[in-house]
Amino acid sequence: QAPLVESGGGSVQAGGSLRLSCATSGNLPFCVGWFRQAPGVERVEEVAAIRSDGDIEYADTVKGRFTFTRDKKVNGAVYLQMDNLQPEDTATYSCAARDRFYARGRYGCPEADQSYEYTLWGQGVQVTVSS
Description:
Layout: E1 5-7, E2 10-13, E3 18-23, E4 31-37, E5 45-50, E6 56-58, E7 66-70, E8 78-82, E9 91-98, E10 101-103, E11 106-108, E12 120-121, E13 125-130
Parallel strand pairs: 2-13
Antiparallel strand pairs: 1-3, 3-8, 4-5, 4-9, 5-6, 7-8, 9-12, 9-13, 10-11
């Protein structure tokens, strides 16, 4: 499987917008999630991810400001539109992907506490938001 490549990071002022992209040279697996890790913080936070039913689940911290979309025409590349960015959104953002799998009695995608189940990860892009 070809590696995942993110793009679109950068620096903006509070209230600004950025659009991240995640793609691969092949077909992107069905299950895809966006994650971020803030500077000096060990925990990786799930920002948005496709769930087993195909719906997108967002973290409460970004709900209403971030939008996860998928381009079905271009090898399934995914995007994270980030609006009204705030300084607390400053982090390294990564995408992760895998095919659907059997776990917890069903065939689907990783749940919020199963980020370890993703088999493909990108290198990450930096997003910096200044006040």
